[in-house]
Structure formats: structure tokens, C-alpha cells
Specification:
- The complex is a heterodimer of chains A (192) and B (490).
- Chain A is α/β, with parallel strands linked by helices and 192 residues long.
- In chain A, 37% of the residues lie in helices and 30% in strands.
- In chain A, strands 1, 2, 3, 4, 5 and 6 form a six-stranded mixed sheet that branches.
- The relative contact order of chain A is 0.18.
- The two termini of chain B are 53 Å apart.
- Chain B has 490 residues and is mostly beta strands.
- The N terminus of chain B is likely disordered.
- Chain B contains four helices and 27 strands.
- Classes of the chains: A alpha/beta (192), B mainly beta (490).
- The interface between A and B is large, with 35 and 42 residues.
Chain lengths: 192, 490
Amino acid sequence: MPRHPQWGVLFGGLALALAGSACIKRAPVVKAAEPTPVVLATALSNVEERGVVAAPDEVVTALTDELRTRDLLVEPLAAGTYIEAFGQTRNSGHRFALVGAQSGGEAVLLVESEARFSSQINGRYRWTVAVTATMGTAGSELAPLEDSFDVPVHLVRYNEREAEALIEAAPVIARRVGQLASDWITASGAAP
Amino acid sequence: MRSLALAAVALLLTPVAHAGRADVGGYFRVMARPDLQGGQGRLGYWNLYGRLLNEGPYGMLELRYDVLEPTPGSDEVWTALHARIEGGSIGNADPGDGSLELFRLSQMYVKSGNLLLSGVTWQVGTLESFFGDLGLYDMRPATVFFRTVGASARYESDTVELLLGAGDSGYALNRGGYNAVPTVGGTLRLRPVKGLELGGGGELHIEGGRAGNVNAPYQTPDIAYEDWVRGEVTETYIEQFPGLEDYFPNPVARTSQSWKLVGYLGFGGFGPLQWNNLFLSLERQHPEKKGTEDLAGAPVDIYVHDFTDERQVFTLGDELYLTVVPRRLDLALGVLYGNHTDADNDIVPSDHDRWYGSSVLRLQAYATPKLHFLAETSLAREVSRNGNAYRQHADSIFANTAGRPDTRGLEYGDSATRDTWQGKGGIVLNPLGPGIHTRPSLRLLYGVQHSTQNNAFGNSFVVTLDQYDDFEAVEQHLHHLLAAEAEVWF
């Protein structure tokens, strides 16, 4: 193999960059003053049916892990207590009130999602997951905080549908919900 | 008053279709691969050895605009416009330097659902549809309507998807001059149980001619296949009929046919098997139209329908994905076999008369959710049916007949076979976590190739043994590349 000094420069620069990355400090996460329970309700709908299902376990786990870093302890609400009612209304305010009525005064996080197929792109199936996350406490003077956003995902197989699209979007959803939770902690006075 | 109140309530409860929502997505890959061995930044010639380090830059932008958004759980009509621009050039990353001349509006169509028939989606415009993807190769053998613009209807339920379409492939198949090529086809996909899918389909193109249409299919009579291959049709004619240049034979009308059959089998979701995709296709390629030679100082068209109407391509590809160690190690294995046959050609090595096979194995290990290590190896063989096609050494012969130097020989080089091995490895950073398919990916990779062919990669080396040339021929069978790459679907 011919000797090329340029490769030594490339490898050396890479090693330096990797070593230096270990020294970068990360910004602290906003945490609650004390471990705070949060009732979680999820909903996944599609454009073809009126019915609604709860989000897959993988999504609930991602949300739980994200909120735990903020000392928020997720208590998933049993889907049977609200999912049928969610099929009758797609209004986030109504849904939040339904869940709030079952929260026993604890904080509520409602994550609603709708997955829709878009097109075939370069070998993959592009779906768009529209998400609305609402966080607050029923009966509180502070109005619930809301964040709505779209997450594009690119599934590999045709047989992967709405549930797989939501699972694929979970890292982004968890991150956005984490930011919403941080805002809620600050706004509600739950911060130290 | 009471009826007015009821009407108002009904109006409030009636779902209303929403309009005007835009969604932008796409794909791109960009890379820096300084080639220190005189190549052009790709490890090998093509994706047969795996797409990694063998592809150049690419960009794709797709817009979806909802004229009428779908209303969940209703039969309301919905309509969306799709437009796609794509091309293979990015500034500073390839010879095109990102020029927009290398991009095109490749797809544009309107989709509308529940229009006339509930559960049916109509599409008018470009119609491309595929069953799936060999991701390791970036190939989609089971694709239909790739070249067709027209109209299709798709019915979909939980277990069945039926697509029927018709249109025109004339502009795509006749880039030298348009002639209509009516096309019909469709696909059927079944999902009988969870974890199993199968499907099939095809398309048919028929191109006729109208008297006097220079873009229709024809055959120039009384010419030999070998003369056409050598570009000596007019030369032979003058030898046989001196002084009769004005009586060169007129072309005779033909009807061109081509078709494609595709099949698909997918299964998985049990044990460590995430999924396995099997694709196959059998295609009769569309005949060529014409070439041009010089006759008595003037160009003359040589029509070649009969010389190019028996080209067939069979492709078989399989790809499986395994979870070796959950959340720690994934494996992807792909195999590809292609067989190109040309019943008209027995004399000249050609891409239309060869077979090839390859296998690609990729492992991706997740040290942390975002820091991964990738290793990939591939092995491929390509065989030319009609004799030598590859030069194995810097001093190998050029034109030859059965390995004996012959300036009139139709063979090239000293081998009919090319064997290639590639190995690749490196670091992958995935902001969205683990997964062999997860993107975006930032990759720092090293690749090495060994080929039986000399300098088996795009290069600018001289290919001559002329002792007076300014540059010497180069002998290399090992090719190394270091690459920094980014790839994203968005």
C-alpha cells in the first residue's frame, strides 16, 4: 500500500476530535423539586378509522425514561378507562378533561398522535406522525401547556403501519415531551 | 326555529375536510472520499458490491400539499399533490458541482381518495410503485410503472392491496424522439396473516408505428448483426453495391413489445428474524430504435428493432435482518443474482449478455445508543457470456479473439470473469439511536477492495502500452478509501 502522509493527518485529527468530545459539558436538565407523579394517557389514531388505540409499550417506555430524568414519575393510565371515549372526540381539550377527571389531582400528560402514510421515497415508506402533547393539572389556575409537532419517519417495510411509525418517532416525541415537561415544571412552580 | 337549530347542530357535528397543509420530505447523502490512488472517490464500479462506498452523492426533495386533507373515519374525499425533484450532484462533492442541470422533476402526481369509490385511491401523473427495497444494494427489483405517466387506482384493505394502472411510457423509452408506448399493468399484495406478505404483478408496453413517423420502430432490412456491432453497415453496403448510395434500403415498420413480471415474498417478526424480503423480476427489455452511420458524407439512420428485441433480464434478490444481541448487535445479509441474456447476440461481450451474483453481509454493533460500529463485507462474481471483457493487468491485451491479439477482435482483455471482494468498517453516529436502518447517520468509514480486474474503479489512468505516452500504465488490484459521509431520510 502506498504511503500517504495525508492519511496520518486524517487519523490524527479524528483521534483529537473524539478525545476532545469527552470534555464537552452538557446543559443541566430542569428537574422537579421532588419526585412528582404524572398520569400518562396516550392515543394513536389513523386517517382511515374513527377508532383510537393506545400507544405501543415502546413509546410509553421512551416517555417514561425521558420524564424520569426530570424526577417525574410516569403512571400510565389504563387504556380501557379512556380509549373508547377518545374515539368519540378528537378535541384535545375534551380529552384532557376526561383524563384529568381520573387523575386524582395529579399532573396529567396527554400524548395524542396520528400517523399518515405519505409516499415511497428512495426505497422507504415515508409516514408523518402528527403529535399533540398536553401537560397540566386538572383544576389548576395554570392552563395546560401544549406542544404540537410533526415527526417524519421512514419505515423499511410495507407491513409496518401506524404503530411502527409511532415507535420510530418515539425518540423525537420523547425529546419534545421532555422539553414540554421542563416548561411545565418551571411554570407550575414545581422546580426547586 | 327548531329545524334551524337542528341544522346548526348537524353542521357543527359534521367533520369538515381541512385544506392547505404542506409537508416536505426527502433524502440526501453526501460524502468526502479523497481518493489517493487516482480513482474518483468510489471504492468499486457499482452497487453489486453493496451500496456503501460505491455510491456518489444524491439529493431528493418531495413536497406533498393537501388540497383536501383526509378526515379520519369518514368517506370524505381527500386530495393531495406530490412533486419530487432529485439528482446526483452536490456542490464540491462530484464533477457536476451541484449543477441544477443534473436534477429533474422526476415525479409529479395527484392522489385522491374516496372519489367515486369508497376505499379507492386514484393517482394521475407519474405512477412508480415498488414492493420493497434491497437496502444493502439500494435496488428495487420489484418495481412497476417506473417509466409510466398515466392513471392508476389502488384499493387497500387490511389483507389485500390491488393496484391497476394504465398510461404512456413513450417519453421515457424513446428519449431520442417521442413515440407513444401504451402501458398497462398492476400489482396484487396479500397479507394473509401477521408476519407474512406475498405479491406479484407486472406491466406490458406495446409500441406501434404510423407510416411516416420517424420515431416509430423499424428495422433496416438486409443488414448483418455483426456489421451493426462494428459500425460497418454502410461500409459493407458500398462494398456490395458500389455507386448505389441513393438506394440504401428503406426501413420496414415493426411493433415493439416489452414487459416485466415481478414477485415478492416477505416474512418475519419471530425469534431473531426481524424480516426477510425476497424479490424477483423477469423483464423483456424494450427494443432500441436506431443508430447513425455515415454514407457518402451524409448521416444515415440504421434501424435495429430486430437486433435488440430479445433482451431479457432476470433478477433475484433476498435480504434478511436479524437481531443477534438485542439492542447491541444487528445483522443484515443480502444476496443478488442477475442474468442478462440477448438471443440476438452470440459474438460480442456485452452488458446485455452476462450474469452476476453477489452477497453482502453487514454487522452493526451499538456501543452506546448513539455510537455504533459497522463492519461489512461483500463478494461478487461477474461473467461475460461472449468472451473476454476485463483486463486483469496493466499489460493485458486489448482487442482480441479468444485471447489472441486481433485488432478486429470483438473481445476485450484477458478474462471473461471479474471477481471482487470489498471490506468496509468504521464508526457510525446515529442521533436517533440504535438500528441498522436508523437515520440520519454520520459515518466515518474505511473501505478496501480487491478485484481480479486491474484498476477496478472509476479512474483517469491511461489505458495504453504506447512507450511514447507521457504516462505509464498502472497496476493496482487493491483499492483503499477513507470516507466521511452523511445520509438522511427526512
